[in-house]
Amino acid sequence: MKVTIDKKSQNEGVITINLEEKDYKEAFENKLKEYGKKMNLKGFRPGKVPVGLVNKMYGKSIKADEINHKASNGLEDFIKDQKLQLLGDPIAIPNETPSDFETQKDFELKFDVGFVPEFNIPLEKKVKVNYYTVKEDKDLLEQTLQNLKDQFGDRTDPEIAEEQDTVFGDLKSEDGSIEKKAGIKIADMPKKNRNLLIGKKKGDVINFEIEKAFGKEKSGILGNMGMSKEELEALKGPFTLKVDSLTRMAPAEMNQEFFDKVFGPGSVKTEEEFISRVKEDIAKSNEVEQKNQFFRDIKKTLNENTKLELPRDFLKRWLTLGAGQENKIPEDQLEKELPDYIDQLKWNIITNKVREEQKIEVKPEEVKEETKRLFNSQLGQNFPEDQKDELLERFADNYLQENEGKNFSNIFNSLMERRILEYLEQNVTRVEKKINHKEFKKLLEG
Fold it and tell me: For the CA atoms of 383, 364, 427, 280, what is the dihedral angle to 10 degrees?
């Protein structure tokens, strides 16, 4: 068997496999004998069907299977020996004339392949990446304080809706295709449309055009209906809302009871201490988002500056043919998604190179510790202190064994990417930039 590659470019080529009869003859004849031993054919004792008859009946399909098997193994071995880093899978090139498995002895099979070319990552201090820090923001502080007062305030059930209230009821489309329970916070609606609900009471029925009533914030206002953002954005036309109940939260007052509800008994004793703690929490929250944005910018910068050309046309064909998936990607959808797919693929190639060159590892016990940390941050406050370690251990073990290993892979990949990004962070120049909260929020949405 002879296997060669014709590199058409730095990232595409054609692998040709030439098989002679001697390459598959012995295996083919052995398969015929195996078939004969297993066959039950009228006129012959079980397992005594002559090889010639087996060949006449099934020889073509057995030979085809054996040739494909030999070619597949030869292709795999060649890729390993040549250390080709393939993208996707080899795509078989149809022969100009169909193979004749009855009389033909020598066969030629060709495969289109796409692969990763040699490249270097521009890791040096002259590569600059912005690190955005959020300036202390008086408006954000006031908004956060008001949200806390609303969250920990006292609930009442008014008879008539006012601007600060939440209206609960049955939301129904005119054609009856949508019928859901909804809770609508009047203050979240566009200001000009709030009068639709202000002044309403239990039992009232309100008619409106859903797009006009809620505007661009439709998915945010109706996000508690158990529908996806896409489904909510697609809602249109006439709707009715039948009011079931009204809720009003009376904001909490700045007193010890409020401080204790927010931070725990005795943790904060004065308004100044309370505001200071809130500022600290805002800063911590911003710090996490600032770091995440910095990592996103590292990714973007390296993707843009790394000279790594991927075989776009090959990848498009591979994805169109199914990419080893059950369902092929429709061509119009592929055209839309291909740029993002290639960007993510490029990033995966870059991070794999960094991981291999820098020997960055994640051990199974580290995956478990990270899982315990995540459960502790989400549920730890609900566990009795004397049982917490045991419960976290059990939760982590169960979670990592579920979902056919995908949960383990997700935590592993997340940890690996974080370590790679931490390495990259040390090898670029961080440019500090201070912006206000609104600018930072716009950047995150960006």
Answer: 0
3-state secondary structure of 226: coil
Task: Output the pTM of the full model.
Answer: 0.69
Same-domain status, 359 and 321: yes
- Whether residue 137 is contained in a domain is answered as no
Phi, psi of 170 (to 5 degrees): -95, 120
Q: Does residue 205 sit within a domain? A: yes
Domain endpoint, select from 219, 250, 281: 250
Residues 318 and 438 in one domain: yes
Place of tokens 């291909």: 338
CA distance 203 to 444: 42
| Alpha helices per DSSP H over 204-330 | 210-214, 218-221, 229-233, 256-263, 271-305, 312-320
pLDDT of residue 125: 79
Whole-angstrom Cα distance, residue 446 to residue 443? 5
Between 68-72, 224-228, 411-415, 426-430, the lowest mean confidence (pLDDT) is in 224-228
CATH code of residue 96: 3.30.70.1050
